[in-house]
Structures are given as structure tokens and as C-alpha cells.
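Quick sanity check, 70-kilodalton heat shock protein:
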Amino acid sequence: MAKRYEGHAVGIDLGTTYSCVAVWKDDHQRVEIIHNDQGNRTTPSCVAFTDKQRLIGDAANNQAASNPTNTIFGNSSSFLNDMMLWPFKVIPGDGDKPMISVTYKGQEKHLSAEEVSSMVLTKMREIAEAYLEAPVNNAVIIVPAYFSDSQRKATKDAGAIAGLNVMRIINEPTAAAIAYGLDKVFEVKATAGNTHLGGEDFDNRMVNYFVQEFKRKNKLDISGNPKALRRMRSACERAKRTLSFAVDTVVEVDALYQGIDLYSSLSRAKFEELNMELFKECMEIVDKCLTDAKTDRSCIHDVVLVGGSSRIPKVQQLLQEFFRGKDLCRSINPDEAVAFGAAVQAALLSEDVKKAPELVLLDITPLSLGISTTALNVMDVVIPRNTTIPANRTKVYGTTADNQTWVSINVYEGERTKATDNNLLGLFNLSGLPCAPRGHPLYVCFNIDADGILNVSAWEETNHCRNEITITNDKERLSATEIQRLTEEAENYKIEDAKFLEKANAMNALDHYVYRMEKALKDQHIISKLYPFDKEKIHSAIAKARNLLDGDNQQRDVDEFNKCLREVKGIFEHIMAKNGFSFLSLS
């Protein structure tokens, strides 16, 4: 049974463009979306710094055009892709972790993504406290489905900085499903996503288009002017919203640059042309999610739309065509649905709520989790992608050398066969192993909690040695876009990975056979019956195999290892057989 927490609990949709906070009201048996101090039900995820103060939300957004380089907005998980379009400055920090540089009260200040997120969360907490007229200590926070383990940890860290106990982190589509139906059991079958398919990414395409349009008409490049870019971005966002209900609009900015106005019409057709590549990516992700869930589109009963971009007519049209004319569900507000679901989950975990809705939620892990095995760099999956969480899996491994006293446990997430092609989450050593032959059993356990946060432990039973790691956020995090890339690479490189695995298996088979040969040659009963020239022949075969295994394997193909294995087996088994031994009986 889930742990329950004392005190008020809210649900927060920490969005890249707008954020929203909601609470379950026991007396009315429903969720309330909480309006902010400006009377709005959503708040810009925007933070600004001036010579006098820090501003968050609407106040920060309202002064963005006049203070662009010190106003932070947007998706912090994708700095490198968007920084050319952002007016604020992004610099490398410790370990090349991106940091945002702003000027605050006359001094340069460097901020991490977690710090910026915590400021927005602080604002959401204050909005909730003003509405409830009581302290708010607990929250359920929503993250994109493809957030990695370390990004979830970062979100928890941001919550802690904001003074919140983050009771649970759940995925956006899961929260939306909760909002759609409160009295159901929700089992997540699969998740797929890309944080670069949101409203801001459509805005970026429009900004790029009008930068080039302004340059063509006026022979002036505004791409290096933060103030002009910010004003243009605001105009593009307004135009995008208008085109959700109108077939054309005007993008107009007075005195955009050097006193020259921007005035240009934009049709819905042109908007769709600019963003068609992104719209198609949306459909590919929907298709991939159904494939992962092993579900045919004809078996889908309801398609629920959430998020502001779901209002775009082309998105709705493509979805309807994809699901063969099925009506799309628009019964819940797409801007508020995710916070709504978070508030329901918060109510289920709160001691203060006496009449919480009856709901069972079974979420999943978005990427496969495992360790690298042997010196061959193979990813051995312990918890496959789309496994229902919480989850606890234990696998048995063996030492790779005689009298091995320690092993390194390298923990990865991803879908590639080669371990180092995936994302390294962390590593630790298990020491104090007993002196024993190769293959001595070791146990590795992966435990994922309800937030999708991972703990990995390893132990050996003879000497009772044990070590573990909870994956921490002490390195640059893997962005949702990078996670999507890893998953796509797993599909694109299936042939390459299959070849790598075939070669790794061939090398492992040769190594294992040679190890058994070496072990047999240490047996005095065998040695005493072999002729000197037979022993020399075996030693020569072993040396040839070891040279092949220990040399530069990058240039070797699988056939060389298979051929070598056939040769050493032929030599050894022939010698064993003529001396009355069966190698197969030796272990």
C-alpha cells in the first residue's frame, strides 16, 4: 500500500511554456484548477532578473521584451538545440553541465536547470497556498514520459529547493488518462514521446521563417538581437493560437529592428507547411507507442487530447486520419488535464483527504535498464522497457576470472546492444569476493520505485559482501530528445547491433572454451597421460586463441573467432579422445 502524507497536497504540471496547479476538494468531490494572482488558470514557466528583483510567471513574461537576456523560458532539457534562438545566454558549467547566465542586481549569476525549475515550482506553491489559505508541503509533479531517471531526480531536487516534498512523479500521458476517468484501473502499456514536439518548437519554426523573411525584405539580420527575437517570438505565439480557429492572421511588430516594422500575413496552410515535419513526427511517435504496446489502432476506444498543441487543426486532422475517422475526445481542457490528473494522484497519497477517488495506477519505465556484462561491452537488460513500476528484478551473474576479488557494476539505460552506446547512469564496485573459480555467482537487483527512480544493489552470499547505488544527478543529464534518439538508434542500428552481438557471443564462446582447456591442463591426472608434443600443440592453440582475443578486436570479424574456435576444439578434442578422455565431461 502506498505511503500517505500529512498536510495539503497539490498536483503540479511543470510545463516548458506554462505551468498549472490543482487540488482535490474533499467537500465538493472534484478537482479545482487554482487561478494565480492575475486570475489566470495557467502561469508562464518564466523567470526574470532585474536590477531590483526576481520575477516569476506573468510578471516575468510581461517584461520579457524589454529585458530579454535576463528572462528565462523554454525547455531546459534541450539547451544545445535551442540556444541559438534564445535571447538568454547558456554556458558550460561543472562537467560541461549547461548553466544559464543572467545579470541580477548588477552581478552575473549562473543558474542550473533545477534552480530555474524550483523557482517556477515555488510560484506554483505560493499560488496554491493563497487559495487554500494554508501551507502546502506536498506535491505530485508531472514530467514528460521520456524523462530519464536522472531528469526525474532533477525534478525531485527542484521540488526540494522549492520547499516541497515530492510525493510522486508521474508521466504526462498517465496523468491525462487519470483526468479522463477517475473510477478506473490504469495500466500503462507503453510510452513514447519527444519534448521537441511542443508549442515552443512550432514557435521556433515560425521565428526562423520570419527572421529570413525580414532579412529578405530589408537586408537586415535580427538573429543576433535578443530584444527583437523576443518580440518576434511573442508575435509568432499569438499568431499560432489565432490559426487554431482562423484560416489566416497577421504577424505585426512595430519598430522591430532599426525602426523598421514587421508586417506579414500568415495563412494556416503556410503554418502547416512550416511545421509539417514536426506533425509527421507526432504521428510516428503515436504509431511507435501502439507498436510497443502490441496494440492495433482498431482496438483503441478513446483518443484523449491534452496539451495546448492538441488544439492545432492539422494535429487533430492527422490523428483522426491515423485512427481511421474515430472521434477525438475533447471533453477535458487540454491545458489543465495533466494538472488535474496530478491532483487526483496527490489526493490518493494525502492523509488529509478523506474521500479520495478510487483509482489504481500502474505506470511503466520508459527505457530498458541493465548492466554491461564481461569485457565484451554487451548490455544485459535486467528491466525491459515498458515494464510496470514499481518493479524489482534480480539476476545472477558470474565472475569472469579465477580468484576475482572485486567486480565493477556499470548501470545503463537504453536500447542498444553495445553497453557504451547507451546512457551510463552510474557505477559502483563490489569488493571482498572469495577466491573461487571463474563463474562464482553474484546477484544484482534492480529496484524502481513508484517515481521511476532506480536503486541497484549487488551482493555475494559466501562472504556476505554487498554494495548498492541510488542513481544520482551528479553529471550532465540525458535530455528527453537524447532518449528519443537512443530509442530510434536502437531501431536504425538493429543490423549493426546484431552483428556486434554475434561477434561478442563468438568471442565469449572461444574465451570460455580456452578457459576450460587451460583448466584441464592443470589437472595432473590428464597431464600425466599426455605426450610432450601433444601438450605443446595444446599450448600453441591456446596461445593463438589468446592472441586473437586480447588483440585489437575492432578489425576482426565474427568468422575469425568461429574459425579459431573450430580449430582449437578440433585439436584439443582429438588429443583428448586418443588418450581416452572426453572433454565434454570436464568442467
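Posting the structure with no commentary besides this: DSSP finds 15 helices and 25 strands in the chain.
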